Amino acid sequence: MDAKTRPDTATKLRANGVERQFISGKSKVQALGPLDLTVRDGEFVCLVGPSGCGKSTFLRIVNGLLPPTAGTLDLWLDDGRAATSMVFQDYGVLPWKTVLANVRFGLDLAKVPRKEANARAADWIRRLGLAGFEKAYPATLSGGMRQRVAIARALAVQPQILLMDEPFAAVDAQMRVVLQEVLLKVWEEDRRTVIFVTHSLEEALVLGDRVVVVSARPGRVVADITVPFDRPRAGDLRGTPEFAALHQDVWDVLRDEVQASLAAGKEST
Ligand SMILES: Nc1ncnc2c1ncn2[C@@H]1O[C@H](COP(=O)(O)OP(=O)(O)O)[C@@H](O)[C@H]1O
Ligand SMILES: [Mg+2]
Question: 9, 86, 88, 208: least surrounded by Cβ within 10 Å?
Answer without folding.
Answer: 9
